[in-house]
Structure of L-rhamnose mutarotase:
Amino acid sequence: MTRVCFELQIAPDLVDEYVARHSPVHPEMLAEIAASGRRNYSLFLGEGGRLIGYYETDDDAAAQAYLAASPVAARWEAEMSRFFVGLDGRPDQAATPLTEVFHLADQIARTQPS
């Protein structure tokens, strides 16, 4: 399993509308996210429109490719693209990935005898 964390910046004046658009997300888009193989997907909103996303997947490249080819995801991302600052391309394909530097379960596992 791969854990993926990413960062995006929402235009501060559009934060309330962005949150409203996710309450709830269209059922068709939820189904596409699940069908892509992404699970345990969360978005966290920080001050000034800083958005952190997290999901788990068995094959991130396959999940990305699935969503890139999905007409449902293309429509959703086209609608959502206006919310983001400094983004070149579709939000789901152009988010800045973050590097994992600590994971509790991995470190505990390393301390256990094999």
